[in-house]
Design goal:
alpha/beta; eight-stranded mixed β-sheet; 10 helices
């Protein structure tokens, strides 16, 4: 099993076969794992793609974190452990907040950020925050019902439901608590690297207005709106998301 060893942490990492090309790190969202990103992007032949499972998620050992900043420090250590001199970070939802935080931290290796289904502030409904500790299965069902567009097939929703139910409830609750505490409204204009913002028309968790705000406030940011998808746009419309990210990576790399 491919792993990244970072001091006391060992993370599972899915890697593309490419040995050359721009480096891209994909960071999943709350309760997710590497499979929440399109396989075509994770295995892209012209990008060096690294997709870790965050601590306590998927195939990674350890405990999850309850702050975005803690996850950002883990990704910083992960990139350094991989020996990457330059890398872009794409994050979905919680992972997008991690990418933004890395943009504020400005590590020397950060070349660009891709912000998928995320926002400068990520308030979470109290029903979800409390539910993971006292009504886990019901809360997972609520999250799934809010996370997909109207055309998403039941089989796709069922797969994400099973993946979420396999999590430690405390880990998911901490993820959502980290989101709820995140507020970068007064710092967002400080992102200085190239940025792509991706929203979806039917996203109820982080509506398109969240992405539009990021687009307006981040200097030079590009914006893509994926039609017909909800919050889980990466699994609902994998081809559209992959195309947008690959196109952006080509532009950012040339720049």
């Amino acid at each position: 099993m491919p792993v990244a060893v970072m001091d006391d942490d060992t993370l599972y990492v899915d890697r593309s076969p490419a040995e050359t090309g721009p480096a891209l790190v994909l960071v999943h969202g709350s309760g997710g794992d590497h499979t929440h990103w399109p396989a075509a992007l994770r295995r892209h032949p012209k990008l060096r793609v690294f997709t870790p499972d965050l601590p306590g998620h998927g195939r990674s050992a350890g405990a999850g974190c309850d702050s975005v900043e803690a996850y950002a420090r883990i990704i910083d250590r992960f990139v350094r452990s991989m020996g990457l001199e330059k890398a872009a970070v794409a994050g979905h939802s919680l992972g997008g907040a991690v990418a933004l935080t890395l943009g504020f931290m400005k590590p020397a290796w950060l070349s660009a950020v891709v912000l998928v289904g995320t926002g400068a502030r990520l308030r979470v409904h109290p029903k979800i925050l409390a539910g993971f500790s006292n009504a886990f299965e019901e809360t997972v069902e609520t999250v799934c019902s809010w996370s997909f567009g109207p055309a998403a097939p039941a089989s796709l929703i069922g797969g994400i439901r099973r993946q979420l139910l396999a999590n430690d409830p405390g880990v998911i609750q901490a993820d959502y608590r980290a989101c709820d505490r995140f507020d970068a409204m007064d710092r967002i204009h400080g992102i200085a690297c190239p940025a792509l913002v991706v929203s979806a028309t039917h996203d109820r968790m982080t509506p398109p207005k969240y992405g539009e705000y990021l687009h307006q406030e981040i200097p030079g940011a590009l914006f893509t709106l994926i039609e017909g998808a909800g919050h889980m746009m990466a699994v609902e419309k994998p081809d559209a998301l992959t195309a947008a990210v690959v196109r952006f990576m080509g532009m950012a790399h040339r720049g």
